[in-house]
Design brief:
This protein is of the alpha/beta class and 510 residues long. It contains 16 helices and 18 strands. The chain has 2 domains: 276 residues, Rossmann fold; 195 residues, 3-Layer(aba) Sandwich (Rossmann fold), CATH 3.40.50. The radius of gyration is 24 Å and the shape is elongated. It binds adenosine-5'-diphosphate.
């Protein structure tokens, strides 16, 4: 990692419900792989444990083989057999747990969204810890993620430390506080926890619904390190508005709560080597951006002749959900047109109503010379938008970390972003004199109204049109920001090391 000091080699086991690219629903999957690889590059031993889903992308796993010994794990008062598989994903060693359970827990054709998700993932968590115990691994850190593997933290201290699996400190990363894993206390019995011991205000009792337990709260209380995916989000969740009922718990545990901005995969998102774009380019030669702009216009049949060639392209790649500021995105389309720009949206929505609305809008603008709305999910095409846009909007109302603003900057598309969560930690306004000049890289706004976004967008248009050279320098500056996993991994390493050192100091004292 970036730290010049030589680090002691650590053994880190991630236990998670997702891992990119084999089992990916959201950012959690990218963090497990990105963080894991950054540590592995520095010679730490990193292993990953995930469920063996039927719907994984098996083509991305190499050397998949069954481990010889079966794994016996406890659930619902019985012992179940599990087959464990090993394989390599993105260079990382992964263990896949396949339960032989009559409910066919991970043979559902999807990762989440089943009625018995609580049971599926508490089963998995218990089996994963049992696997570490049975194979006599002695990790320094067990790192779990989101509510799915949150129960690892109490299970570890309550059940596994007494059995001798006591080498590890527990790190827990919450990627989104919306999902907390609430259930009746009795449901904890299945994985072996005692509801009477756990259903207490200072342990796992939900802060709102008092007759329920809350897995996320359990992880916050029982972990040695609690992180979330940006410093600003870490602050926001400690407020009554942002904490979704957990702010008091987080505030009380504040000494171990940290926000670390995620990185992006800088090999995948690299304009200098990207084969999905019309022409590769880098900070030394940003002319390639104009070629990509022309290619984007041509593919989308946007006007680019005569005076139209001067129009900036404003891009947006997003899930269309209220948290992403759908009303602001809608406004940006019309505002861009008024200001003489061109607008390209690539977005899709899990919300039927929103999806239909944007499909309708897209038809309205079909053949419009300056607006194209592409209402679908298309990762390959997203590369062309990042490369072809000059301005990129990210008007999220709520954003734990956010990746699109970082990808956009790497491709020299200047973000116009709302100051929330990870956007506030990665986009710094060019006009903000309180921020050092060399890190200013975009346009930001705070309010949630159309006029707030409009004003920031106007400033971007003004600079783009009237200060062309300055804009080119800004593009270079944005492209040079280091969004790789290195610096984030360095922060995690410091936290791991401190937690390990504290535990060593304590055991020497005893
Ligand atoms: P979230 O995980 O909340 O959707 P992030 O900004 O953390 O938001 O990550 C979004 C990722 O998904 C980015 O890599 C972005 O390029 C990609 N993405 C979002 N919508 C689309 C889409 N319609 N087509 C292709 N890629 C998309």
């Amino acid at each position: 990692l970036l730290n010049p000091r030589k680090r002691q080699r650590m053994h880190i086991v991630h236990i998670a419900a997702e891992m990119a690219p084999v089992a990916k629903v959201g950012g959690l999957a990218d963090v497990v792989t990105g963080l894991g690889r950054a540590f592995q590059k520095e010679n730490h031993l990193v292993e990953i444990v995930i469920p063996k889903y039927d719907c994984m992308d098996y083509s991305k796993i190499s050397k998949l083989t069954a481990v010889e010994a079966d794994l016996d794990s406890f659930f619902d008062g019985c012992i179940f057999k599990n087959k464990v598989w090993t394989g390599i994903v993105e260079g990382l060693p992964v263990y896949f747990i396949e339960p032989h359970h009559p409910s066919r827990l991970f043979w559902r054709g999807k990762i989440y969204g089943e009625n018995d998700d609580f049971k599926r993932f508490t089963y998995f968590s218990r089996a994963a810890l049992q696997f570490i115990l049975q194979t006599e691994k002695r990790p320094d850190i067990i790192h779990c993620h989101d509510w799915h593997s949150a129960v690892i933290a109490p299970l570890y201290w309550e059940i596994y430390v007494p059995q001798g699996l006591d080498s590890a400190r527990i790190a827990f990363t919450c990627h989104n506080f919306e999902y907390q894993g609430r259930e009746n206390p009795a449901a904890l019995t299945s994985c072996g926890l005692d509801p009477k011991r756990m259903h207490r205000a200072d342990r796992m009792q939900d802060n709102f619904i008092h007759n329920q337990i809350n897995l996320l709260k359990g992880a916050i209380i029982f972990s040695n390190i609690v992180t979330t995916v940006s410093p600003t989000y870490a602050e926001e969740v400690q407020s009554s508005e942002g904490g979704k009922g957990l702010h008091l718990t987080l505030m009380a545990q504040n000494h171990k709560v940290f926000g670390i901005l995620n990185g992006i995969d800088t090999d995948l998102w690299n304009p200098a080597t990207d084969l999905h774009i019309a022409q590769q380019y880098s900070t030394n030669d940003i002319d390639g951006k104009a070629v990509n702009k022309a290619a984007l216009r041509s593919v989308l049949m946007l006007s680019g002749t005569g005076l139209d060639s001067e129009r900036p392209i404003v891009g947006c790649v997003t899930r269309l959900v209220p948290g992403k500021g759908v009303h602001l995105i809608r406004h940006a389309i019309f505002h861009t047109l008024e200001r003489g720009g061109q607008f390209v949206l690539l977005g899709s929505s899990p919300v039927d109503e929103i999806q239909k609305e944007f499909e309708y809008l897209s038809q309205q603008f079909y053949q419009h010379p300056h607006i194209r709305l592409i209402v679908k999910y298309d990762e390959t095409f997203s590369h062309s938008i990042y490369a072809g846009s000059e301005i990129f909007i990210v008007p999220s109302i709520f954003e734990p970390c956010g990746l699109t603003q970082m990808i956009a900057m790497r491709y020299g598309a200047i973000p116009v972003a709302r100051k929330t969560g990870g956007l506030n930690d990665s986009v710094f306004d060019v006009d903000d004199d309180t921020i050092p000049k060399q890190i200013r890289n975009g346009f930001t706004f705070s309010g949630k109204h159309e006029k707030d976004l409009g004003a920031a967008l106007d400033r971007a248009f003004h600079y783009f049109t009237h200060r062309k050279e300055w804009w080119q320098d800004l593009v270079r500056q944005a492209m040079m920001v280091d969004f790789s996993w290195n610096s984030s991994a360095n922060r995690y390493a410091e936290l791991y090391e401190k937690a390990i050192a504290r535990s060593k100091a304590r055991s020497q004292k005893n």
